[in-house]
Queue: 3 jobs
Job 1
Amino acid sequence: MGLALIPALTFAQQENVTTAAYRYGEPGEAFSSNVPLNELNIHAYKHFHRIFSSGVTAEYWVKTADGYQASFMQNDRQHKAYFDRHGYFRFSLAYYEGKDIPRLAGELIRLRYPDYRINVVTEIYDGEKTSYLVRVVNATNIKTLAVYDGQIEVMEEMVNGGR
């Protein structure tokens, strides 16, 4: 499963994003896009609002070579949702501080790495399951962990030079 997380992050890191040129809607319900409204896929837009039905703000749509990306805020967290060219949901990412990690994932990490502090979390949702990429830090090391299905896999290890 850890290897399955790599394409999601690679795709997210290779975004070709253009600045907003268009703004739509009424204040409080507005969104921005890098393309005219008629170039956004209506299916992606509908799927987005069905999956993320409440509390969405700062909605920003981007049309890319691979489909569509919606960046937004929800519950004081930065999110990105990805859709293919036909408007079907692929996955979403949410970014937040380690103190906000869900209890079970946090306990699993703290049991296995008791001398590490959970620093930052990237939550990955594929429409069925939620997985996490978690950066943990101690005085000498930094690790990036993939946490899924009650398992932990070390994805990356580095020496912590900046205490």
Job 2
Amino acid sequence: MIVRKLREDDLVDAVRIIALSFERELIAIFKDVDIARDIATEFFRVNRDGCYVAEDGRVVAFAWLIKEKPKIFKFLKSQMSFFDGLRSYILLRFFLRRPKKGEGFLVFIAVSPLRRGSGIGTRFMNEVVSIARSEKINTLKCMVPAEGDALIFFKNLGFEINGIFENKLAEKYFSCRSWVLLCKDLSA
């Protein structure tokens, strides 16, 4: 398995993996998974900083690691109507935390459903952590639902609970009221 930066020719596979992994969330944010795919493809075509893929014959996993909060609202307004762009931005903001200096925020990691359970996610995430260290990130954070496999996955990788958030909007749109902010110290 090779971990590398996202290239333009990876976009179809990478966005497919996102759509398969986060279909419910994408429908809640964009009202339609096909619209979400189009918007994500265009967004990552011009915003590939911090985007990494795992390739094993083809792209099998995709992660987005940010060191500063991306400027998504202007992009969404250009792709959608003002009100649909604003609505989508408000929902996306829940997942996009603003990293402080020396921090990184893992917006998502997605593994192809056909390759889950094979250890690719763990190996990929370990490589992403190595990349973060090489980029002078001292602390890596991510947000996951309090219920489900993601919390166990990240805790097994050494992430610790940094905070728990209750959010009625997240419950309404993403079917989970409690979300956990996880943190991993990379400075050691």
Job 3
Amino acid sequence: MTENDPFARIPAVPSFTVTSADIAEGQQVPLAQMSGAFGVEGGGDVSPQLSWSGAPEGTKGYAVTVYDPDAPTQAGFWHWAVAGIPADVTSLPSGAGAVDGALLPESAYQLPNDARSPGFIGAAPPAGHGPHRYFIVVHALDVPTVEVPADSTPTFLAFNLVEHVIGRAVLVPTAEIPAA
């Protein structure tokens, strides 16, 4: 699928690898990573476990974002944004996106998602809207962190990341809820 490509208008950078024990490329998002807060029955709003490797030499820090470009808005929907992840961290456990951020590295912080809650909010495509893609991205940076206020939007973070991203690891599961 090429429409709504979130990387179409930003500079290409080398890729590296991100994997998850909870989700898989091109596969349906599990119920734990769906959104109970947005009405998905049994949805857990639990951020997925992530591990990454092969980041470019010169990586000084990371940011992690989760974005749905297929949301029925002009701007998609940001589900999670984390800045300030140190360069020596190469994984996040399931649930690191809890609002309290207790499972994140000490220097890391979460920005409010598009529901205006700091933390991860799960997938919840409208019933019958078709499949949605969830771009889970680990951004390798040439700085320890991109200095944006913790109450910024994920879009503001993404804008400020562009000039500092030296590598990108991408995992794209999907989610679809059938029409009632």
